[in-house]
Design goal:
- The chain folds into three domains: 1-37 and 48-112, no CATH class; 114-157 and 264-288, no CATH class; 160-256, Chitinase A, domain 3, CATH 3.10.50.
- The chain has helices at 7-15, 33-38, 64-72, 84-107, 114-137, 143-153, 173-184, 189-196, 220-226, 261-286; strands at 53-57, 60-63, 160-170, 209-214, 239-241, 244-256.
- The strands form two sheets. It has a four-stranded antiparallel beta sheet with strand order 4-3-6-5. The chain has a two-stranded antiparallel ribbon with strand order 1-2.
- Helix 3 (64-72) crosses helix 4 (84-107) and helix 6 (143-153) crosses helix 10.
- By secondary structure, the chain is of the alpha+beta class.
Length: 317
């Protein structure tokens, strides 16, 4: 069975219609499990637990944990618009609607449709994969681990040199040499940039100003020359890169200070999460036997990659 392209959007819109375009920051009862555990001892008497039943549909319970999970799915940009006491019944209504639709779908035998059953299994597999990764990776990325990585990357290391430069980009060496001659005759760099700079270069109408940059931020051919110039010095011969021919002038230099821990905390956290996730996946894959096949069904040779069938020859007239 196939659904029209907009069927999923229609389903979501229908189930969410009662709470359309309204949401809030996740209330206390929607806190992640980790936060809920840490706050367990401080929970006031009478506060419902995750197992509290808030509705039943044909006797099947909907629990407080289901409501909390639904609240966590609210998009960040939609949060903060209505108070928790108003959102709470809307989320319950949404869950009841969804459960009722599921019951109808099973009555119609949709869960037995091979295509739908495959989608359901794929969704379950994705949840399982995500849970395995979270359980293996998140506990390792502690504040101590982030601080250790910061110390390794930044702490105690000297700052990196930067230059503030501008350039004039043209499409031939001859044009670049002519610009250098005009500079030597007293022409202003910014005027020449606006007049002769490549119109596809967004800096040309700003006098060629590139701002401050580090050596690794630019192509080696460009940086290797720029970082040899002194302030207010320009290149006496054109510099060639894949973009064309450049005349470069350095305006000032500085040594940047390493970022503070707070400035790169989240970036380092993501680095560690990616690295640990990659290691976990590699470890999991090493424990299974994998056989790859090409699109035509033939086995992939050891060390090879799956291939599509050759493209049919172009029609001749």
């Amino acid at each position: 069975m196939r659904f029209p392209p907009n069927a999923k959007a229609l389903t979501v819109a229908t189930l969410y219609s009662a709470a359309s375009c309204v949401a809030l920051a996740a209330p206390a009862w929607a806190a992640p499990k980790e936060a809920a555990k840490s706050a367990a001892t401080a929970t006031p008497a009478g506060t419902p637990s995750g197992g509290t039943i808030v509705a039943t549909v044909n006797g099947d319970p909907i629990r407080m944990a289901d409501v909390a999970a639904a609240a966590q799915q609210i998009p960040q940009q939609m949060q903060g618009q209505i108070p928790p006491e108003k959102l709470f019944p809307l989320l319950i209504d949404q869950l009841v609607n969804g459960r009722a639709v599921q019951i109808q779908a099973r009555k119609q035998g949709l869960d037995k449709d091979p295509a739908i059953a495959h989608q359901m299994q794929s969704a379950a597999d994705q949840v399982l994969q995500s849970a395995a990764l979270q359980r293996a990776v998140f506990p390792q990325v502690t504040e101590d681990a982030i601080k250790a990585q910061y110390d390794k990357q930044y702490a105690g290391k000297p700052g990196e040199e930067e230059v503030h430069a501008r350039h004039i980009l043209v499409d031939s060496e001859a044009k670049a040499k002519d610009i250098i001659r005009q500079l030597e005759a007293g022409a202003k760099f910014e005027d020449l940039s606006k007049k002769f700079g490549d119109p596809k270069d967004p800096s040309s109408q700003q006098g060629g100003d590139l701002g401050f940059f580090k050596k690794g931020d630019m192509l080696p051919e460009f940086s290797n020359v720029a970082f040899t110039l002194k302030p207010n010095e320009y290149t006496k011969t054109p510099v060639h890169t894949r973009y064309g021919w450049h005349v470069i002038q350095v305006l000032e230099t500085k040594v940047s200070q390493p970022p503070t821990y707070d400035q790169v905390h989240d970036e380092i956290k993501q680095q560690l999460l990616r690295a640990d996730a990659k290691a976990f996946v590699q470890q999991a894959r090493a424990q299974v036997k994998v056989q790859l096949f090409n699109a035509n069904g033939t086995p992939v040779k050891p060390g090879g990659t799956p291939a599509l069938p050759p493209a049919p020859p172009a029609a001749t007239h």
